[in-house]
Amino acid sequence: MSTETISFNWKCKHTWIQSAKNTAWCVLGCSIGDFGTILFFQLSQIPFPLIGIMTLAIINGLITSIMLETFIMIKQKFSFVEAFKAATGMSLISMIGMEVAMNLTDYLLTGGAILTLSVIPIMLVVGFLTPWPYNYFLLKKFNKSCH
């Protein structure tokens, strides 16, 4: 029985740059829905459980990210169906990881569901760094990109 050694290159500068661009689009899309939801509850003072707010923030972040990525790919001449499948398929794991990381950061720094100018940049950096290596891996392994 022979074992095949699979070599994976983590040192490709071009792929790191491309995966960073893809990840940045994902952060933008996720943060629109996520921050919008948290800000809504923060400003409206509607009594709602913290876990409910954070769950809604994650769901809305996923929705806005999928919408943004679908729109970007349609602009790149994908059909709606192809764009939507790519946005929901390849990117979903990245988006979920990003959303959980951003909301966990918010929870650890503020107690949860509170946006402050000092915490938002930290949430964005954590949200970016969490899925970036995974996005690099997918791009390198499958030579696929959602953007």
Q: Helices, strands, pairings?
A:
Elements (H helix, E strand, L loop, with lengths): L12 H32 L5 H26 L4 H10 L2 H19 L9 H10 L2 H11 L5
Characterise the protein shown here.
With 147 residues, the chain is an all-alpha fold. The chain has one domain. 73% of the residues lie in helices and 0% in strands. It has helices spanning 13-44, 50-75, 80-89, 92-110, 120-129, 132-142. The chain starts with 12 loop residues before the first helix and ends in a 5-residue tail after the last helix. The relative contact order is 0.18. The model has no long low-confidence stretch (mean pLDDT 91).
Features:
147 residues, mainly alpha, 6 helices, 0% strand, globular
Pairing-aware structural class of the strands and helices? mainly alpha
Number of helices: 6
Estimate percent helicity: over 70%
Number of distinct beta strands? 0
Main pleated sheet: none
**Mean of all residue-level pLDDT scores:** 91
Assign an overall shape: globular
Distance between the first and last residues' Cα: 41 Å
Radius of gyration: 17 Å
